[in-house]
Amino acid sequence: MDLSLSTRTVGDxxxxxxxxxxxxxxxxxxxxxxxxxxxxGSFHLVVDMEGVDFLDxxxxxxxxxxxxxxxxxxxxxRLVCNQERILKIFRITGLTKVFPIHTSVExxxxxxx
Length: 113
What we know:
Layout: E1 3-10, E2 13-22, H1 27-39, E3 44-55, H2 57-71, E4 76-80, H3 84-93, E5 101-102, H4 105-110
Parallel strand pairs: 2-3, 3-4, 4-5
Antiparallel strand pairs: 1-2
Helix pairs in contact: 1-2
């Protein structure tokens, strides 16, 4: 399966809607998108993963790399996900302590974490 990406602005946040599979083959596309956004001055990102069917360690690495990039600019990266199979990956890896994970874009945008 392929990866679909789209971006939009909600308030002072840039929302990246991700669909499909984030794996060793598609993760570079997501990495490029995150790097481009940060290079263009978007330092407060929300990655909407509601449409993600699969996430592997390469995808996790891309998200961690994106977090490091925005933090270098005093920014933030929040995730939107309520799919149990994807949330389980974040719990197992301990990344629930690293990423704020929200159940909706609206909640992520308005959060103060």
